[in-house]
Amino acid sequence: MSGAVHLIIDGWTNRTPADSLVCVVVAWQEDGRAFRPILDVAWVSDLSPESYVTNFISGCLERYGLIRKIKTICLRNAPHSEQVCAGLHAKHSNPYLQTRTVCYSHVVGLMMEAFTSFLRPLPRVTPVKYFQDAGVEDDTEMDDLELDYSLSEREYNADLVQEAVRNARRELDIDIERKVLQGARNVLSKVTALEQVISQVNSQALKQAYWGRSQQESVSETHRSVVRPRGSRKWGTIRDSMMRCSEFISTFRNLVAAGVNVPGIEECFLDEIEQNILDEFHTGFEVFDDVVSVLSLQETPFLHEVVVELFNLRMRLEDIRNGSRLGTSPTSVTRVAAEAALWAYKLMVKDDELPDICIIAVVMHPTHKLQWFNKRGMDTRRIEAAVIERFNQSYPLVLVKGESNQDGLVESKHAVATDSMGNYLDRPTLSKEVIEEKGGLLNYWNQELVTQPRVAQMALDYLTIPATSVDLTRIFSGGQMATNGLEKHVNYDTFRAMMSMGSWFGTPVLPEIDAVANLLEM
């Protein structure tokens, strides 16, 4: 591993609530290929000391000699995450062990939760803070009441989503009328009921009219494979169901008007308010598509890819909130939903500004550089100064004649001018076509190690930072992967070995399957 290594802490829940699995993963690149194997797996119970996870991770890094190689840590956005990072930093002198990147699939997932919160079933108690009865006087202040119902299956996510909705309501100072709020609640229940009605009819033509087009569509036009997020009433199914209903609506109206006998279909008919809300949320769902496509790639999504799409997503949500994207004045519930999604981002990232690590990752992409920020009205002078300072601190110039030095990068005097951050930033941006001709982004920078080793190494280190701590199959599943509990029937060390060895197959360490088999038989 010649460059930086990025630490990923993943988690799997066990069927037994008393314990779960913690998975220590490392990510790095070599010769233009990105790898993400497992170092080790451990069981964590409610009785484990608070320092157990930190000590376990520290032991893994020490055994593999990776303490000084770690550049960033990516783990889920939960209260204990900060404690883990602080504990690792306290145990070791590597300052980068405090450089934590958030799990952006978790961020986007909760933005989706906040956006769709008003579509979910009626709460257990009356949400008095979301509407105002014309003839009823109520002296209760909004801040005096808790939003006493769940918008998410998990308490941590639910609390954050509820806070995002409260802040959005307070920020916009909008009263959502009772009929509009009820209309939003009715939309998803009627869409769900329509799907059940369609699934039970005998007409194949009607089923094809409803299900056909959506099943043939792909989330992304990219040549790389994608996986559609799935889950009961999760983002993927909510989005797909409402999209199908929106496209089916003309056929739906014709059936009702013609009096076609489809049992139960009249109860699924949307009134004018509900139809407007459906159309507005359908448009809102579309603004998430680009970032969902990046996060759903079969390959590991990188931070620089997600940051760009997430920035665009926030701009589009602001347009919906301000009413400048829908073409007509949006309903109050749609505006609050868009603002709630923006607040979910703020609460997760802890700041409305891009973190420095995200800025550097975007700058080191040769098609972006400072121009990407300039087009978006950001202060490029401050960004340029910060990037150059980080470059000079982390990638110092070492002049050595004819020798290599493990503590720095070797440069000849005639290459000093070329291998500087100022020179890189001053050169024009490259087109995507040029990068593709070089074999892709990582291959391009691997080739540049010959002519500008310091700049290229910094680029490789930052462009390989992972954007999510969970694997592809769980990007929008709502969190940790649930195991079936069968691992409890396997020897502890055998299970750890099988999990680790399997993930290392195909990397430069274990390129052949025979090597994996031999290790497991030892």
Automatic annotation (TrEMBL):
Q: Which GO terms describe its molecular function?
A: protein dimerization activity; zinc ion binding
Which part of the chain is the HAT C-terminal dimerisation domain? Answer: 424-504
**Compartments (UniProt record):** Nucleus
Q: Which GO terms describe its cellular component?
A: nucleus
InterPro entries attached to this UniProt entry: HATC_C_dom, RNaseH-like_sf, ZnF_BED_domain_contain
What are the UniProt keywords, alphabetically? Metal-binding, Nucleus, Zinc, Zinc-finger
Query: Main location per UniProt?
Result: nucleus
Give the protein's recorded name.
Answer: HAT C-terminal dimerisation domain-containing protein
